[in-house]
Amino acid sequence: MSSMATMENKQNHKQVWLWTKSKQVMTASVERGWNTFIFSEKDRELSKDWSSIALINPLFIGDGELLDSDGKRVASFCEVSSPQQLQQFQPSVQQAENVIMSLLDWQVIPAENLVAAFQGSEKTVFSVAKCHFEAQVFLEALEQGLGGVVLKVEDVVAVVKLKGYLDRRNDSTNLLSLTKATITKVQVAGMGDRVCVDLCSLMRPGDGLLVGSFARGLFLVHSECLESNYIASRPFRVNAGPVHAYVAVPGGKTCYLSELQAGREVIVVSQNGQQRTAIVGRVKIESRPLILVEAKVYEENLDNGSTYSIPLQNAETVGLVCPFRDDELKKTVIPVTSLKIGDEVQLRVQGGARHTGIEIQEFIIEK
Predict the structure, then answer these.
(1) Which of 64, 156, 162, 275 is the most exposed place for a label (fewest CB within 10 A)?
(2) Cut 0.85: pTM above it
(3) In this structure, what is the dihedral angle of CA atoms 116, 121, 122, 126, given to the nearest 10 degrees?
(4) pLDDT exceeds cutoff 70 at 61
């Protein structure tokens, strides 16, 4: 495996081990696919008890090492109590394949120092986290993050929240299937309350949010990252649509644009379907003139396709992302002020009915 492939594998497959005496935490962890648990030597009876009710992988701490049930070394264990001690800590051949660090004085900067110290190492580095927030910081430090965390908690909530975070993170490694749709109507619609979504991260050409009047068909609305003669580039912003429209959020869900607020997560999608999560920093709702855009997705061998729509602000800086093409005719975005019947745009077609943003199976007509 190449070094690049190894790095991508470590980034996409973070490990979680548990250090707890709570049977509820153990049960919740096993249910979520985490079955490696750390015990002290005096808790061997507890490990036997749990092994009788669940398939777990018990590890035992002893003399700076973690040993499995057969006494084989699985990980090296080290406690760090000062910045000087952390600065001196480096990968070595004496360490096991897995290295667990316990930072007694937990701070964000030491987490970053750990990532930097082991960058390029073949070892998988864990750090002990005492809550889901600490765990998330370790997994994100310097973007690459550590290879895993040891979640040392007695609270089931921490397990649930960390699993939710990792599920959202893993979603972003998958390509979304986008569909080519043909514009069938562009019509002035009058005034309406539209929503500008400002994110805590920057977007590139081709990036946008999935927005639509119907959850079954979401348009890829482009960000304001492109230079314009009319206004300065704002690569953190998407002029997304009216307050009633749906927007895609992590977990395969949607919410109304009017429900977004600072701290909420949304999905940023690129022209080729690559997705990632981003945090909303600000939402601006203002009354502006709107254009109603309708598009159809034509099924093979059928003349009539499914129609989807979205009202958007009538402004040159608002645009829809075009279908991805890997050739010299490649185009990224069409401003709504230049849209015409027959133009092609990107659409996310998915299930129809929604209840509180979650897809459900029921009869529904939207028009």
Answers:
(1) 64
(2) no
(3) -30
(4) yes
